[in-house]
Amino acid sequence: MTTPPIAASTPIALADRYEIEILRQAEKDLDRLKDRRAEAVRELLKLEQNSELGRALAGNLRGPRSLEINLKGRGAYRAVYTVINENRVCIVFIAGPHENIYKKAERRWESVKSRLR
């Protein structure tokens, strides 16, 4: 008995996918993960199929979303991103340990917002 290819059993229209853009500073954040970087990027790539995978943020971070990334041996990480539905793109602007991530994200979000206008 042969098993059908995965693509045949779970079709995903390319038009339904989102592009993932990781800003330069967020790339540097991910580089700090060293041996766990690839694992974190795999989690981020899940946003291609579901841009609302992370939870919506509030307060000064109203608009962006936070994706929880649990890394073995590293603990809880977050990636904070914004979704631009018109362009079908998720822009990741910060990634790091859960501790204090949102204070740092507020500062970066101000910079990102001004560039998106």
Query: Level of helix content?
Result: 25-40%
Count up the helices.
Answer: 4
Number of domains: 1
Oligomeric assembly: single chain
**SSE order:** HEHHEEEEH
As for the CATH topology, it is YaeB-like fold
The appropriate CATH architecture is 2-Layer Sandwich
Query: Strand order within the widest sheet?
Result: 1-5-4-3-2
CATH class: Alpha Beta
How far from one another are the termini?
A: 55 Å
- What is the makeup of the main sheet? 5 strands, mixed
| Secondary-structure content class | alpha+beta
**Average pLDDT metric:** 87
CA-based gyration radius:
16 Å
Unreliable stretches (pLDDT < 50, length at least 5) are 1-11
Write down how many β-strands occur, each being a DSSP E stretch of 2 or more residues: 5
CATH superfamily: RelE-like
* Broad shape: globular
Strand portion, in percent?
25-35%
